[in-house]
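Progress note, project year one: complex with zinc ion.
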Amino acid sequence: MKVFCIQFVLLVFSQSLLRAPDLTSAATLQPPPLIQTLSDGGDIGPQFNLEQSSETPQVIVVEDAKFWHNVGMRQLKKTIDNAKKAKEYSYANKAKNIIVFVGDGMGIATISAGRIYKGQYLKHGNGEEETLIFDDFPNTGMAKTYNVDKQVPDSAGTATAMFTGVKTDYGAIGVDSTRSELNAEQGRVESIMDWAQRAGKRTGIVTTTRITHATPASTYAHIYDRDWECDTEVPAQSVGIHVDIARQLVENAPGNKFNVILGGGRKPMGALNPQEVQTVKFEGPTETICARNDQRNLPKEWLQKHANDSVPAALVHSREELLKVDVKQVDHLMGLFRNNHITYSIARQAGEPSLQDMTEAAIGVLERGQTSSGYVLLVEGGRIDQGHHMNYARAALHEVYEFDLAIQAALNNTNPEETLILVTADHSHAVTFNGYPLRGNDILGSANLHKAKDPMVYETITYANGPGYFEHLANETRPANSSNVWKPLNLFTQEERTSPTYRNLAAFALKDETHGGEDVAVFAHGPGSNLVRGVFEQNYLAYVVSYAGCIGPAKDFDGSCSRGYAASPGDKITGSVSLLVAAIVSLLVAAPAT
Ligand SMILES: [Zn+2]
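Model obtained:
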């Protein structure tokens, strides 16, 4: 049930109405209902019930697509009104191309730790003073990530919010919170890729996870449950109603029209490579994959569907093949590089491309010069999240480093005057960056020193929960003067602690570390980037893409789209001095970051 008490709804409304102080002051606001019960759920987390007070009058409010559309449009209006008040008009600059970078699970602690990891990995000095590429982006904001039914969200609900403008339930993909297991049409929402294709733009998705995983799937699929990646995962009552995610990618728009599809997931696509080699064994629920039972080879079907392309479509399975693709000619490129996810970059396997390789290839296929209508591209650094889930802090931070390289590649290969680049996370994680380590201390090291009286040290990167608990639990090796709980860190060998499968300590035992519920940062660069400011609901990002890109529901918000791409040479002269000045300013701001 997506039923919320009236107080909570008032709270949401009052937060989105900036200039309505009388509303907030008049409200008899109370905190949202408490979580009453916790019980085991599926592999994406426990289900819970909300306590409903019998004394409070209840109004049933369904937070459906219409509800979230209104929230998104109000936020857009608020942001633009504030910009006008400050006489800043560059918000109206239009983006021909839009690239959305999602660091899955890249919360603020991960960004700060990842920045230091980058500096130390590159031996740039102490590390703390390092900058990530997106640190230099001119605009930032904070997104509230909760799902319609959960305080702490998952990637399906959050990606649906970002890519469709509609917040939805935990686990739901491309459908709003009115979704139904028995009706695949119920609550369907369009994505930024639908909007882009309707406007004649090219589209593409790039990820280090399976191409059918929650984040990329939310750009093209509509399905009750994110786990239904292949036919054998769709439960009996939904068979014949819901089509699995992999099939939706090649059968339905917008997926079947994508110019670029790069990632892992050969197995759910029915194209298993039985010879695949994996030299490092990583663990966790996401390491298991569903296998098709319908004998379909979807990449092969995709190739056949594109058989009439003037330039033959390219299907590749290795980095070597990817780099050989003539990206300036090929209009449709599919690269599936792994049966499951692409391996963590810290343990990259032979033949696997980096996120940077894939991003460069994608932009090559999408960028078609001044005569084209531009493009929309999703690039997901998908394994930051999965590293954290297993408490593999080193593997997770190395993914941040590689994610940063991919963003650098995008800046190097795009025109900053016409390309809006958003960098964000879908949600955070239960990871902390803590203690009082000295300046320049190894970010993956200990936060304090071993002392004779107390040999207990703890790590700067520590998890609130997860499987790291078990490895650090004290056993018979425990010295008398240590804590009764944890094995001293110096009893781990250097080899153990630098292994990609080393788990940092977790304080509460769980097989799978959880997400975090705090806001995530959004970094923005290029035309429309100053629409990203303040704190907003996560679904607002789809409205930023819509307004700045002149696609989808906000393209007619004001007359700015008919004025054309303000900052692009050769495009219509707007006649507005302020727009011209803003374009020059954004150009100057952009320069140091590239
Ligand atoms: Zn996750």
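The chain has three domains: 6-85, 97-431+514-552, 562-593.
DSSP finds 17 helices and 16 strands in the chain.
No further modelling is planned for this target in the current period.
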